Amino acid sequence: MTGEILGHYRVFELIGSGGMGEVYRATDDRLGRNVALKLLKPSFAHDSDRLRRFEQEARAAAALNHPNIVAIYDIGVHAGSPFIVSELLEGHTLRQKLISGLLPLRVARDFAIQITQGLAAAHEKKIIHRDLKPENLFITKDNRVKILDFGIAKLTHGEVGEDQSIATMTTQTKSGSVLGTVAYMSPEQLRARAVDHRSDIFSFGAILYEMLTGRRAFVGETEVDTITAVLREEPQEMQLVRQSIPEGYEHIVRHCLEKDPENRFQTARDLEFALTTIPESPTARVAVRTSPVTSAYKRRLPWIALAILLVVAATVVGWRLRPMPNPSYTRLTFERGTVYSARFASGGHNVLYSAAWNGNPIEVYTSASDSAQSRSLGLRSDYLAAVSSSGELALILRATHGSRLDFINGILARAPLAGGAPREIEEDVRWADWSPSGELAVVHHVGGRSRLEFPANHVLYETGGWVSHIRVSPAGDRIAFFDHPALWDDRGSVCVVDLSGNRTVLSGAWESEDGLSWSSRGDEIWFTAAKSGFNRQLWGVSLNGRQRQILAVPGDLTLQDIAADGRVLLSVDNERVAMEWTGKTDSQFQDLSWYDWSVAKDISSDGKWVLFEESSEPSGPNYAVGIRSTDGSPPIRLGEGSAGGLSPDGKWAVAVPLNHPPRLTILPVGPGQSREVLLPALEHIDNGSAHFMPDGKHVIVNGHEPNHPGRTYLADLSGKVTPITPPGVYASLPSFDGKYVVGKAGSDRRITLFGLDGSAPRPVPNLDPGYDVAQWSRDSSALFVHRSGELPLTVYRAEIATGKLTPVRQLVPAYRVGVVSISPVVTNGDGSEFVYSYYQTLSVLYSVSGLN
Asked: Percent helix, strand and coil across the chain, each rounded to 5?
């Protein structure tokens, strides 16, 4: 095969072979990158139904964008042999690692957590591996686990059904087709019963046992003996094989290897969380020896006294250096969906939370703090902001979703826990909390600025950014909060303000913040935040700024509340911003997500390319600007920064770097050199606000000059800026004729056109201010708009002259459970093709004890 060309793939060398076929190092001549090309046996193509199933599985696996799953780029057939093109990996399989020696516990734990993260991502898309074993787990040179061969189990073993039995499987084993696999197969697989994701969990348990002990969980002299062991026997206790294994691993492995799927871990997420609660090494034990007292007691008394002093000192030091106790977790929710907020109530005996389960609207629920049984309070579409000591609820009503689980344009209301309709108090409230005396502190949005008020209408702090997660101290003398300097970005710092309005910044800037509360003693502020990416951990900071990490797990944590006895409400959130394209018909759609935070920014005039911004952890601290074809081809990274828009000819993209000085970056989509445009007149530029004008020589940006409120500017490529909107008013999206930009203005925030010739602002008549703009029509006579917060979301064509609305398309993600909001929405000038991002969170709520 060396030198052969398969489509646009040029084969270089053979790098591996096995029962399925051969693997080659190849080059993708179209994109100029090295790939792995797996050429399968021609016999696999003879059965058309089998090949069809394989293609379906391979396409599903190709949709998995996760760092612990090997990326599949392409599939095809060459000379009767199917082939798969995937990312080229360097390293060794887990099998090779196990053959070379016993894994350290820390390494085995790390590998195990990565495997469960990859499985969870696949299972959430209804994809089951079916053939998980050490040979299908690859360890790269930087110790990242990659799960191989998703979907190939159907190709190699076919669909397990009524026509397949243990007898036929053992026959296949003798011919080598299942050799080395049955030791990791679940009992239901071996009995030819239907399998689901819990079969992968059984296989993982067998692999984890082997990683920890160096021995297989199920072993027989023949394959039939091995099958019998899987079906009927239990593996030897791990601590008898390796005494240093912490007891927690024994419980996890046993739970994975239950013969009945109903008794196993029910999701890979639960399994992942269980693994994170086990320390990396077993707790050390210290033996103390004593010596008898001799007859020379008096003579040795000074030495005995010194020895006692040393023992006391050692005891004190040992106590201070003792291992922290493992926290205890009580799971409170079991539905599929999103937890928005949760609070302890009734002195910590009950938990109240607002959640959206199984694709239904948000409701407020209550349960005992040690029980998984919940009941609805009958408050639908309401966000629980706070619970007072007397049992009164503070709710945010009829709000639209902000950037994540926060709300905007909501109405603050009070409601008794005992029942009764909420009583509305104030509009445009985004956050609220009760003081110990029963007064409400609120975050009020007025004139484009965020105000922290306590009591109501008394401003303690005001910012042009935004304030979130306010919590009044147990003494009622301070309010802690997150201060976010930029709109629509959850970067920020932990701050506290006293009742005189004196603000203190307690922490440095965090890349992501979500969840804050005072500690049970009131001497620290606990919060969940991430230094990079969105993998938030639990931290504490004292009022003098001393910071410490309290809890770290591989998933995203959100702190909800802390009870007086120290119990902590935490939600474990699987968060992502996914990106989806839909063509001229509803049947044309493509998942274009890159990693976990893909934000759509623009679509080319021909609808073939999408400009997007990726701000997940793999993209780096300064985000990534990327472009991707709507046919699903792999994304191309153009540069760093916050993406703006494409030039009219589609050859350039404009981005806003996240660091100073204020400037724009002009990035080539194809060949060419990037160029930076300094804007020295501006002190700040808002992320993602840059858009090319139709002439391709000017850009509009949102920002502000020193000591001036924000507004929209017209910038040329020499760096000169000219204001085009009034102070305090932002606009975006120039019309195709270059005469207007569109934004929101006035006290009612109506959609308004601003002329570049200096003409008076022109509101669009009869158009509800709740609509947002996706694009201009190509003839500049209409706007494509949608109402924020809708699910599903309907896009309308709004005539500029009359405001008349005509429905164009309804947008709804292919997988709706856990979808919180759809934003932003981008379309072309014809309104015929759309690309949109949607924020999705799947949550589990826990009550955690034992954190210090």
From this structure: 20, 40, 40
